[in-house]
Amino acid sequence: MNNIILIGFMGVGKGSVARELFKQSDYFAVDTDDLIESLENKRIKDIFESEGEEYFRALEFKTALWIEKSVNNTIISTGGGFYKVKNICKIGTIIYLKSSFDAILKRIQEHPNAKKKVAKRPLLKDLKKAKEIYKQRVSEYKSIASLTVNVENKSIKKIAKEILSQIK
Ligand code: S3P
Q1: 99 and 11 Cβ atoms separated by less than 8 Å
Q2: Max alpha carbon distance in the chain (Å)?
Q3: Residue 87 φ then ψ, to 5°
């Protein structure tokens, strides 16, 4: 599969980088959270609230199976927990967008829509818990990725350029 999968913590910029890669290359781009929201006709936070996290994770699994079978030449930006799907390695080249927890928080807080950015992410409401999740995940993100890109203090354009130069 000639896909590129962007993984990393909530708010690190996976969607923005995917949209920029779409502009700068011949790849198409999709976002797993967007796919799930449109299939369920509900926001992620509402799915978490009404059906629970397990239900959401099952939707991620289903999405991953469809991507493996049907998607090619595409940049796939993912939700922060999507990397746990069983077939992640069969979907394409995994790129980990790496940043410290503090820099991610700063990125979210400095966004003009900061409140919305936090409100739409159920696992970001409690910052102490979010930091615990971050700590658990960082080594896992790194270990499954073929490429780790440090995104701290870099523009989205620069990150996309760096990725394209590394995967050529
Ligand atoms: C999650 C990250 C979210 C979204 C859901 C769960 C996670 O996506 O999939 O709220 O487990 O880290 P973003 O990484 O785009 O915030």
Answers
A1: no
A2: 43
A3: -100, 20
Domain range spanning residue 96?
4-154
pLDDT confidence tier of residue 52, bands split at 50, 70 and 90: very high
Give the pLDDT band of residue 168 (cuts 50, 70, 90): confident
Rounded to 5°, angle at Cα 40 from 34 and 42: 75
CATH code, domain with 12: 3.40.50.300
The closest alpha carbon to 108, from 9, 6, 4, 5, belongs to: 9
With both helix axes pointing from N to C terminus, report the angle between 101-109 and 127-144 in degrees, rounded to the nearest 10.
120
Segment 72-92, tens digit of pLDDT: 999 999 999 999 999 999 999
Residue nearest to atom 12 of ligand 1 (CA): 80
Q: What is the mean pLDDT of residues 3-30?
A: 97
Ligand 1 center–CA 44 separation, angstroms: 8
pLDDT exceeds 90 at position 24 = yes
39 within domain boundaries: yes
CA of 166 from ligand 1 middle (Å) equals 26
Atom nearest to 12 CA in ligand 1: 14
